[in-house]
Amino acid sequence: MFKCKPTKVIITGNAKDSFNKLNKSISEEISKGILNSDNQTILNSIKQKIEILKDNPEYGFHIPKDRIPKCYCNEYDVNNLWKVNLALAWRMIYTIRGSQVEIISLILDIFDHKKYNKKFGYKKK
Question: Which of 2, 10, 28, 72 is the most exposed place for a label (fewest CB within 10 A)?
Fold first, then answer.
């Protein structure tokens, strides 16, 4: 419950693809006996942050409206965007949708810092 409303987290779009790719890689690693890897660290971090978002959708860093990439506005009709820092400098991007009934954290992207910088137009110094 957040602000007296039930909350839900949904992984969609590019984030769902990244999440599924990580799960597949980890399954392959485990079948080879690899029990500790960067992929596993990232996936555990994602799962941990999802649990936090269930309790507090405003957990992440709010991205100012003028910094929201147009692709999110066009593809997902976004008017707010949030970022969560994950392990190994990965990022999780989400938007919050709400109604009088519930609040939904819609995860849109999960990617490494290099892809994050590119998508948000940050240049390497």
Answer: 28
